[in-house]
Design a protein that fits this description.
The protein is an alpha+beta fold and about 325 residues long. The protein has two domains: about 140 residues, Nuclear Transport Factor 2, Chain: A (Roll), CATH 3.10.450; about 150 residues, Nuclear Transport Factor 2, Chain: A, CATH 3.10.450.50. About 30% of the residues lie in helices and about 35% in strands. The protein has nine helices and 15 strands. The strands form three sheets. The protein has a six-stranded mixed beta sheet. A six-stranded mixed beta sheet has the order 8-7-15-14-11-10, covered by helices on one side. The protein is globular and about 55 Å long.
Amino acid sequence: MLTSEFQEEKKVVLTYYEALESAPNEALVDVIAAHVSENYLWRGFHPFDEKHGAASVAEAFWRPFKASFQPVQRRMDIFIAGSNSLASDKDVWVVSMGHLMGLFDAPWLGIAPTGKLAFLRYCEFNRIEGGKIAETAMYFDIPHLMMQAGLHPFPTQTAAHLVQPGPATHGGLLFGTQVPEEGQKTLNTINAMITDLGQWNSGLSLEDELRLTWCEDMLWWGPAGIGSTYTIARYAQQHSGPFRGAFSDRSKTNHICRLAEGHYGGFFGWPNFTARLSGEFMGMPATGKVGEFRVIDIYRRAGDKLAENWIFIDLLHFWKQQGVDVLTNITKDK
């Protein structure tokens, strides 16, 4: 049986996206204000962090971005909505993931323009309240954009650098009604995975631990600086194993929102967890310092296991906490 649940919330976000894309820069504050609540909270990756209110978000992020990338086109690969399983009041969030695309014709964040097509990989969680967007977590992969501009913000990745595609099934845009039971299956699988992988001491080999909740031919679409990888064996070799080997004193997971709809689901935190860099990570030496991991994870379920995972990690924020200001250093050197 299908349900009409979340259709109004989805409409709120889609209407906002349409207005935002067509708005001239001088009208951005008014356009954003028309679609968000008065006490709007926006969380973005470094160097933006938290912003409050339509004017702050427009001036800090959208106006400079739209001035540098013209015209901006939002190319969504996943669009879902659901009740926050972690909230007692079951607040509703709408999630969008894909790329913001445009011609990179003017500097942005000190990154020199290329005059060519460029993609900003993004994922966005929007909490809807009273027909308005009350809260947004918009995470984006700035190092991925820097690499498109010919910069090398990090040492060589263990996995692959790609402009990432959407789901293999091409079925991630859930504009219509969905079967609630499918979303619950996805959420249950995500929760089981979090429980399994959150231990770091299950007694199983890493590969066998992953096999509890992941398909053998899983796809892990990681952030620039780490890269993307394919199959359980290669994921363990190219990310999960090195990551576990590099960190100690990992805190418990602390998500703000976790939801699922259909075969898709995900979560975000601010931060998700903290850990101490006690070994080499991403080609950089141990610092012994604790750092925050601001993360969005989006998943596709196939059967009773997870098949694909898109990950957004604020690596610029993490490395700045370790004493390395990647964005400032590399744009200054360029």
